[in-house]
Amino acid sequence: MLRPERWDREIRALMDAYEIAGLAVAVTDREKILWHNAYGVTSAEKPWDPVTTQTLFRIASCTKMTLGILVMRLVEEGRLDLDAPVIRYVPWLQFRDNSTRDRITLRRLLSHSAGLPSEYTPDGPRDEDRTEAILREGLGALEPVAAPEDRFYCYSNWGIRLAAYAVESILGKPFTQLDREYILDPLGMDHSTFTLCEAATYSLAVPHRRGREVLHYIPVNAARHAVGGMFSTVDDMAKLARVLLNEGAPLISRSSMAQMMTPESSLYLNYRSDYGLTMRLRQYKDLLLAGHDGQSPPYFASIWTVPARGVAVTLTLNTDGGDILSTNLIPELIFDDLCELPEDGDLWQQGQYCPERETLQAGVYLGDAPGLFRLEMREGCPHLTGRDGTYPLLPHLRSGVYFYEKDGQKICVGMPAVHGGSAEHLMVQSQLCRKVRVESLPDGADVSEYEGEYGTVLDRYLVRKRGNGLEILKNGVSSACTYVSGDTFACDFGAVIFIRMYGRIAGVRVGSTTIHNKRPVF
């Protein structure tokens, strides 16, 4: 049931609550847009310039679905094989640790289950002619975090970049040109572009901090276009959503779209949440949603379709902290009415402990956001001990899923060994955490190479010596670092992983996949 007056009222209230500067949303069926609307302004400094449904926003990782469709088209033409080793298409491929290289396939790359770590590097080259050089440099510094045959979900932008380069190497054209020829032009996505200069000739929503403070900078990294570089409108995104609703037509076959929507890896949450081929597959009440969300802070976007009901919602916004609106709150508000859904059911039903397999998971782990933590068995029950306390884990009805409560919020912990998988990893809120052995900082180690200022458009970190070790300052808050191994530390902000390029420290990841570049000292 269409309820535009209620949607309009609730969206305006959410925008006020989250201090969102600009937002646009569209609802479509298999043939046409049923309703769309736009709110706020393109810039808080231009109150006379309203957002429209033709205003461009960066749609971030929603871009990945166009790569998936492009790959499936080439598979249909016999030019690519999803299950062939990717070195068939990228023979120069080298990692720092090549132990899994020959077993990585396009299927594993497109489903984030190749065991490669992730990255988010907002800034980079402005054109695509350096893509291969950047990839050789970046991939050459990587070490796998899991084996591809374990099919662990580990969201890896490196993997998507590698898959896109494989496509480029086969067809001899840059990804943006191929995306235009195979996807954007056939669908009539006339306002969509990867070029900031072109986007600026249209109505373009600029980025904001929460509180409607304009950020006078839009990062560009042409080496990551396939990962999340597209600028688009909700109306253009609705055309892409209709490809999912129409089982791939007019771009790919029904069987190819079915493959994209087949689960390849699990996120180990308290409801069905899987990943296909560049496609998120998640349960919402009685629905199975297929699509993707996008986060390129402070831009957020989403394309969520309900193939069984033939409806979809597309959404874009331009303010930091708005991800929950685009990923959950507003699409779910609309689906509740469109599909006449029931009230929330109980998603936290408890299951049974499995002590024999739970014991296999005991050990010390490191994850981006959780940092260092320990899983141990106490009185036949698994307990998680982190930087802020010890929590008993309750078994969920879903096999291999556990949860604990912290500050009124339930947190999911996935134990793959209980589900018949490897015992070397855990999943915490869908983030892959690996078992580690914490080492002592080598005698006489010089940590001064890590010192310096690191930053992106939104965050800044200062790393400096503290005794024989390191500390990190963020927004005036200091945290001492614990050495783990290699160039990896941990602190109260999470895992601290320094990025080394050509033997020198070039950046750092602190509690996330975002790489903060080291700022030069003059």
Strand content: 25-35%
Task: Tell me the quaternary state.
Answer: single chain
Helical proportion?
10-25%
Biggest sheet: strands, sense, closure? Answer: 9 strands, antiparallel
| Helix and strand composition category | alpha+beta
Poorly predicted spans:
none
What is the topology, as strand order, of the major beta sheet?
16-15-14-13-21-20-19-18-17
Quantity of strands, as a count: 30
Mean pLDDT level: 94
Distance between the termini: 61 Å
User: Whole-number radius of gyration?
Assistant: 23 Å
Q: Work out the helix count.
A: 12
Overall, the morphology is globular
Describe this structure in words.
This protein has 522 residues and is an alpha+beta fold. Helix content is 22%, strand content 29%. The protein has 12 helices and 30 strands. Strands 16-15-14-13-21-20-19-18-17 form a 9-stranded antiparallel beta sheet, with no helix packed on it. Helix 4 (131-139) packs across helix 5 (157-171). The termini are far apart.
